[in-house]
Design goal:
Blueprint lengths: L1 H23 L13 H36 L3 H32 L3
């Protein structure tokens, strides 16, 4: 058994050494040489907003699950209700923040 463990640790150590070497063996692709336009900046901001929206949804779901656990335990029901309310308000504000620019652009026409 000790011999097998030593062999397994040796293989694991070799794998940890080889993985970075394999990753660094790739040739880097050259970046395109161009300036950022207005559309590129808007696209970057939109991508960041999508990432933040996803994080906000994840935090809200965590809060809802936490409040549900507290509610099931029955110890802190008032605090659990508050957490559910805060999570619902957070989701509503996040959805409004996500949808409001699209509604404004639809009403004004893409300027």
């Amino acid at each position: 058994m000790k011999n097998f463990t030593k062999k397994l640790m040796a293989v694991g150590a070799m794998a940890m050494i080889m993985v970075p070497l394999i990753g660094l063996a790739q040739t880097p692709t050259p970046l395109p040489d161009r300036n950022l336009s207005y559309g590129d900046v808007i696209r970057i901001i939109d991508n960041l907003a999508n990432i933040l929206f996803g994080l906000m949804v994840a935090v809200s779901v965590f809060y809802i699950l936490w409040a549900a656990w507290m509610y099931i335990q029955g110890k802190e029901i008032d605090e659990a209700k508050d957490k559910l309310l805060y999570a619902a308000i957070g989701l509503a504000v996040g959805l409004l923040a996500k949808l409001l620019p699209k509604v404004v652009f639809a009403l004004l026409g893409n300027i």
